[in-house]
Amino acid sequence: MTTNILVTGGAGFIGSHTIDLLLEHGYK
Fold first, then answer.
1. CA distance 22 to 27
2. Residue 27 region by backbone torsions, left for phi larger than 0, else alpha for psi between -120 and 50, else beta
3. Rounded (5°) CA angle 3-28-8
4. pLDDT at 2
5. pLDDT value, residue 4
């Protein structure tokens, strides 16, 4: 589920920023 969110959200600047936040919290 988390991976799908990262892939889908990674398309935009907001998505990229969200990925950075998730990575800081230990998500991959």
1. 5
2. beta
3. 30
4. 58
5. 59
Half-sphere exposure of 24 (CA within 13 A, CB side): 6
Give residues with Cβ within 8 angstroms of 9, minimum separation 6. Answer: 15, 18, 19
The pLDDT tens digits of the residues spanning 1-28 come to 555 555 555 556 666 777 788 788 775 5
Residue 21's alpha-carbon distances to 3, 6, 7, 13, in angstroms, are 14, 11, 14, 13
Contacts of 27 (CB under 8 A, 6+ apart): 2, 6
d(CA 26, CA 28): 7
